[in-house]
Amino acid sequence: MVFNSFTFAFFFLFVLAVLPWLDTRRSNLFLLAASVLFYAAWDVRFLLVIAFSTGFNFVTGQRIAMATGLLKKRWVWFNITINLGLLGFFKYYQFFADNLNALLAPMGISQGLPALHIILPLAISFYTFHCISYVIDIYRGQLQPASRFTDFALYLMLFPHLVAGPIVRASHLLPQIAARSRPSQGDWDAGMFLILWGLFKKVVVADNLAPKADRLFALSQAGAAEVVLGTVAFAFQIYADFSGYTDIARGAARLMGFHFDLNFKFPYLATSPSDFWQRWHISLSQWLRDYLYIPLGGNRCREWRVNLNLMLTMLIGGFWHGAAWNFVLWGGYHGALLCLHRAWSRHVSPRLGLGKQVGAFKWSAVPAILLMFGFTLYGWLLFRASSLVQVASFTRALFVPLSFPERAFCTEMARQAFYFMPMMLVEAWMIRRAKTELVFGSPWRNACFYVVLVYAILFLGAKSGEQFIYFNF
């Protein structure tokens, strides 16, 4: 039941039609039932895993709140061990088994770990991180455990954020569940725009760029021009796809009376690696910072240790995305960028008299934006590649002159820009107006813009019905 399907549209309209007739307690129970149905529509077997996670984390959260001293810490480590063990078994067992068996084969050991052909439960990466942050916040005294099991279950399974985020902190969502307010007119305006804007980004931009990116990454070898075109296509595809999903999730939640925080903030206008991670998948970046980087010591250590903390955080963040070496490489690449930028900012930039870009957009920041976008593009090549062999082949191709005439290259880039430039122009307008949600003051302007979006979705959108990229994680 994907967001860009008629099945979800009918499901969501039914939910919106029922909610006004129910009080807070009954509406929460109804939303929990709807979320269970939404999740079960993918594969009813997945319910067993998420039901165990829900019950286990609710009980251990209560135990952590009641325990003291060493027992409190033991409950936390027990909870984290089980959560990560569950994620590791379903998501990473086959990866480790394949790599271990490959290492043992030259030694004459034919069989190490058996192949189990495990089906990855949908959204396990996201709800595992929700569970871990929930119990750690209780341990730190920053959150009281949910008093009702159904409230905690709804926090974990609320269908807008269940499958691919954003990662919503319990301290932010549980109070809204306990005292849910009815959506205001402003919520309806913002919610409708976010849903339509998210669908436009997904159906018109991401799904039309997908074949161009897929064409490149289906090859084992390619020329420099093909690599550049395919990687640019994927860069805007994944941004439109994932930020589009988040916009729909935030809009749907808004129409039901819930508010989710911003998850993307124009990441391709980042001027540095650290700036990029304050703009891209913000909920994950903040989760890694608060529950991994800072507990490792953060930037309170010696310089070598700070760099190690950055590298470990990004390696784990990359591996979280998928059980493949290219994700580890992608995480390590961004970790290296963060370490190098930190060294530059501390030791080189002050000597050159280079100031830090702050505040509103300035034209003087354009060189830094273009340089960072180039670094980001190569990162997406690592992320999307199907193997390390393909990474090596495409990297070599980038050092060879363009493999077909410049005019053809520009023509193809212009075709791709036809899909992503309208999106970028609208979001540039949003920056100029200092808005994170585009809502015109006039109802007539709102209506006209909605008509344009609906027309584009119906008649310019790809007909392939592509699944959202982050559903795979």
Number of helices: 18
Report the portion of residues in β strands: under 5%
Structural class: mainly alpha
In total, the number of domains comes to 2
Task: Summarize the helix and strand pattern as letters.
Answer: HHHHHHHHHHHHHHHHHH
Measured between the Cα atoms of the first and last residue, the distance is 17 Å
Helix content: 55-70%
Largest sheet: none
What's the average pLDDT?
88
Shape: globular
Radius of gyration: 23 Å
For the secondary structure, the number of strands is 0
Low-confidence stretches: none
Verbal overview:
It is a multi-pass membrane protein. This is MBOAT family O-acyltransferase. By secondary structure, the chain is an all-alpha fold. The chain has 2 domains: 161 residues, no CATH class; 202 residues, no CATH class. 69% of the residues lie in helices and 0% in strands. The longest helix is centred in the N-terminal third of the chain and has 36 residues. The two termini are 17 Å apart.
